[in-house]
Specification:
The protein contains 11 helices and 5 strands; from the N terminus they run αααααααβαβαβαβαβ. The protein is of the alpha/beta class.
Length: about 270
């Protein structure tokens, strides 16, 4: 049996006790000065990542916004319209017919063809001048002046999807007086007839349904001032004048719309989009 001195442990000095002492699980931990620098570095790294992400739009191959269409003079737009009109329908207008279609028929807003639909609202405001709000936004019928189902602007597209795209572009103008959707996809003729019993400032649709609603006298043309023709070409290369199921109907429709003038009202303006 060893002596008492040998069995006793040698007491640790204060420095050694500090090295071996484990931190208490109770109470607040002492702040680590390095954590502040880590947080700051992490924040700076996030800022750098955002900056690089924004700068990446300038790199080759990055998706860029669609360039604004170059303005086309009215006469050039008219010639383009007539060429498309005649070639798609395999016909030649007579001199009497072509002479009646002058460049004054084209709405001159210094616009291009196949533009972004988001600027259509701005262009229509310019077309109607100071009275744009009264013509395009107000929703009350005016006896003897504004009859139900007679839009001031009629947008003609090759498909329901394009019609809806135009309506999204002019949404700020249709809050008080909703636009009429004149296409066959998910829309019944009877429902559209009901809609056209109210004031309609703007209507957007496809040639076949528009023609049908005119024939049954649900859609009126007495107030028509601007016809927007969608000249957009889809991924298959088809447009309003070349899509097989549409091109055959657009000829008669455009002729009817342009002949809707009266002795007190001139031709509606054409806007090629």
């Amino acid at each position: 049996m060893g002596s008492g001195k040998e069995g006793r442990k040698k007491p640790l000095n204060p420095k050694e006790m500090m090295k071996t002492k484990k931190p208490s699980s109770l109470g607040p931990r002492a702040p680590n000065p390095e954590s502040k620098f880590k947080k700051k570095n992490k924040w700076l790294n996030n800022v750098d990542k955002k900056k690089k992400k924004n700068d990446s739009s300038d790199k080759v191959g990055a998706k860029k916004p669609k360039p604004q269409a170059e303005p086309i003079p009215p006469l050039q737009q008219l010639n383009f319209f007539l060429d498309q009109f005649q070639s798609a329908n395999n016909l030649q207008l007579s001199s009497l017919e072509s002479d009646s279609l002058t460049e004054t028929l084209i709405l001159d807003l210094s616009q291009g063809i196949d533009q972004e639909v988001s600027i259509l609202g701005t262009q229509m405001k310019a077309a109607f001048g100071p009275s744009w709000k009264e013509v395009l936004c107000e929703g009350q019928l005016m006896e003897g002046k504004i009859d139900p189902g007679n839009p001031a602007v009629l947008i003609i597209s090759a498909s329901a999807l394009r019609s809806l795209e135009f309506l999204r572009g002019i949404r700020p103008l249709t809050r008080e007086c909703p636009a009429a959707k004149l296409f066959s996809k998910h829309m019944k003729v009877d429902d559209q007839v009901s809609i056209l019993k109210n004031r309609v400032n703007i209507a957007s649709g496809t040639p076949s349904r528009i023609k049908k609603l005119i024939d049954i006298e649900a859609l009126g043309l007495s107030r028509l001032s601007v016809i927007v023709l969608d000249m957009h070409t889809d991924v298959k290369g088809y447009s309003l004048f070349t899509l097989p199921q549409v091109s055959g109907r657009i000829l008669g429709l455009v002729q009817e719309l342009l002949s809707s003038t009266t002795s007190s009202r001139r031709y509606p303006d054409l806007s090629l989009w």
